[in-house]
Amino acid sequence: MPNSGKKRESVAFIFADRLLAGILTGAAGGVAAGWWFGPVMTGWGWLGDLFLDALKMTILPLVVTAIISGIAPLGAAHAVGRAGAVTGVFIIASTLVATTTGVLTADIVQPGAGARSAGAVVPTVEATNTGLESIIRTLISPNLVQAAADGLILPIMLFALLLALALAGMGPRAQPVINLVEILNEAIMRLIGWILYLAPIGIFALLAARFGALGGEGFRREITSVGSYVVTVIMGLGVHFLTLCAVLILVRTSPLPYAVHFLRALVTAFGTGSSAATLPLAMDCARDANMREPVVRFVLPLGTALNRNGTALYQAAATMFIAQAYGMDMPAAQQAVVVITAALAGIATAGVPQHGLVNMVIVMSAVNLPAEGIGLILAVDWFLDRCRTVINVWGNGVGTAVVNHLTTGAASEK
Ligand code: ASP
C-alpha cells in the first residue's frame, strides 16, 4: 500500500499548525464569550450545529471506506484477526481499568457524603439486565439502511469488515473494487479537510452557546452546587489520562508528543461533546503521529464504536456518588458490580453528546438505585460530558498506538 499517497491526503499534512491554532483560539474564545456575554451567545448555536452536522455527514462513508480499504489489502485473515484481538483486549482492559479508577476515586473523595439529603429514602428498584445481550445484538442489523439512518455504527462496521474479508479472499479480481473504495476514502478525507476550515468558528459557536446559556456566574453556581462530585469525576478522568500515558510508554511512544499530535482531536472532542463527530480528526491526528494506515483505518472506527473509557469511568463514579447521596451501603461486591456494569454501559454508549447519562440507568439499576437519582447530576452533565469525551478520544488514540506497536509483523504483510 502506498502510504505516501495516504499521507498526501492527510488533512494534518495540509494545514496542521494553523488548524490547531484556530481550534484552540475558537475553544478559548467560545468559553470566554459565553462566560462574559451570557445568554446572548446562544444565538450562535446554529453555527456550531452546522459544523457538527457537517462532520456527522462524513462519518458513515468514512467508516465504511476506511474499514474496507484498511482491511482488504491486509489480505490474510489472520493479520486482521491479530489486529482485532489486540484491539478487543485493549478495549476490555482499558475500560475495566477506567471503571475501577472511577469507583476508587469516589471511594476516596466520598463526594456524596455532603450531598446526602435529609429524608432520602433507600430505594428498592429491581435490577435489570446488565445489557450484555443487547450489546451483542447490536452487532447485527437486519436492515443496514435503517441502522445507518438510526446512526448505529456497529452493524455497518461489521458488514464492512466482512465485506473486506470477502474481497481480500477473492484475489486480483477484487482489486478494482478495492482501488475504487481506496480512492473514495481519499476523496472523503479531502472533503473533511474542507469541513475542518469551519472548525475554529464551529467550536467557538458550540462553546459560546453552551457556556452562554448560563453565563459565567450561572456556570460557577451550577458547578459548585455539586462541586465535590465534579471534582471526583475530573480527578478520575485525570488519573486515567495518566494511566493511558503510562500505557503509551510501555509501547515505546512518548506521551507528550503523541498528545500534541492529538490535541486538535482532543479540543474538538471538548467542543462537540461527540467522539463520533471527532472521528475524522482523530484519524488524521493518528496519521500525523505516524501510525500505520491500516491500523488507523481499523482501530479508530472500531474504538469510536465501542471504546469509551471516559464515559465508563464517569458512569462508575456517578453511580457511586448517587449511592452515597442516598446513604446506601456499597460493600465490595456491589462496587464490583458497578465496575463491570459501568464497563458494559460505557461500551454500549453511542459517541454522541450525553448518551452516557442515559445509559447510566444500566449501572444504577444493577445496584438497585432509582433512575430519579440522575436528577442529582443532571445540571452539570453537559460539562462533564465534554470532559469525558476528551478521554474517550484519548483512549482510542492510545489504543491505536498499542495496536500499531503490537501488530508490526501483521501489518508488514500488507
Ligand atoms: N459524549 C460521549 C461521546 O461522544 C458519550 C457520553 O458519554 O455521553 O463519546
Task: Write structural notes for this entry.
There is one protein chain. With 414 residues, the chain is mostly helical. The protein has a single domain (2-413), classed as Proton glutamate symport protein, CATH 1.10.3860. The chain has 20 helices and no strands. The protein has helices spanning 3-9, 11-37, 45-71, 77-109, 112-115, 132-137, 144-149, 153-168, 175-196, 199-212, 215-225, 227-250, 255-272, 275-288, 293-306, 309-325, 332-348, 355-366, 381-406, 408-411. Helix 4 (77-109) packs antiparallel against helix 12 (227-250), helix 4 (77-109) packs across helix 15 (293-306) and helix 13 runs antiparallel to helix 19 (381-406). The longest helix is centred in the N-terminal third of the chain and has 33 residues, at 77-109. The chain is globular and about 65 Å long. 52% of the residues are buried. Aspartic acid binds next to helix 18 and helix 19.
